[in-house]
Amino acid sequence: MDLLSGKRLVLGVCGSIAAYKVAQLARDLTLAGAQVDVILTEAGARFVGAATFQALTGRPVLTSLWDLPEDGVVGHIALGAQADAVVVAPATANTIARLAAGLSDDLLTTVLLATRAPVLVAPAMNPLMYSHPATQANLVTLRERGYSLIEPGEGRMAEHVEGKGRLPEPFTLEGELRAMLGRATGPLRGRHVVVTAGGTREPIDPVRYIGNRSSGQMGHALAAQARDMGAEVTLISSAIAIPPPAAVVFVPVATALEMQAAVAAACTHADILIMNAAVADFRPASAAERKLKKHPETQGMTLELVTNPDIIGGLAARRDLFKVGFAAETDDLLAHAQSKLERKGLDLIVANDAVASIGQPEIALTLIDQHGQQPIARCPKREAAALLMAALVERLPRR
Ligand SMILES: Cc1cc2nc3c(=O)[nH]c(=O)nc-3n(C[C@H](O)[C@H](O)[C@H](O)COP(=O)(O)O)c2cc1C
Q: Is the predicted pLDDT of residue 72 greater than 60, yes or no?
């Protein structure tokens, strides 16, 4: 089940031009199954109308401290107390200052004082306002009080100035919210998970490479799922066609050797390694410096290949690291997977049919460990990632 399904979220929208981006966030969170109560500040309502949020969330939009609900329940206390999380996006300099001062002079600031749920604050403002010592000091105060803060982006602002102060895209805001919820109660909170994804690219010359059909979808879905479960996630990926999930440390790589170095560095402080990437077994012995040319007299060519290192097998001595390997095979799937599990000293191996799953949107899996096999029927990769991560959590040694 999706992390956001059934969650009660309060979304505070302040008076910033970036408020328009948050309409999309309200829709995405609602479609993911959350109940989203939008609080518009007075200034916020000048940028996006309540009707927009009401239509997107299917809930009444709240604007005033004095709009008491008909059942007589004190609205701001109930909203704050029942919320699983509060998101303030865009958060203006003004609201940030009032929060830091502990004021409660409108509905949003009152709800924020009355909640003990995790709070995510996404500042958005002119770069001069953002870099002002008063705003910076207020943000330090909020961080010290345990609020999760999202760094604003850099670039061109609405008023044609460049600098730091842009509200990140809804995709990033949702990812940060999921990470915050995961850190609060998720089964992987406090753990560092390293995930590899995509098919490596081994250069032949400056424009050509040996690659494979892996899209990176499964690895990226696993990284997102681990984040939702509260883990600190490092995603080492050679996928080029899909974006990484938000709120994970993303390390882009191309070759098997680059991936090996990145895995070694990330695993020095990791608890779990999920080696999902389709790593090339061989690479050209040397990559040509210039583009290889075909000449009229040339009849074919021979490429000398050398064997790539076994990345996860090389970490067999790390008994403290829970190691999950993938076996994508075209024949004798389960036998190959079983022998790989033992040969490489893995804690769990995930067998899948290479032709039916690589580069496809759906996948069927068989999980194999020392206790036996567990099948996961063919389903979208996002669902398979959730089922696989749940099975992994069950197998983790207690701490
Ligand atoms: C066109 C326009 C755009 C604004 N954009 C921002 C903004 O991006 N960030 C910000 O902190 N304030 C911005 N302001 C100023 C706030 O709207 C103002 O400080 C207001 O009092 C904020 O109230 P609130 O924090 O209750 O929403 C803008 C004002 C105008 C007129």
A: no
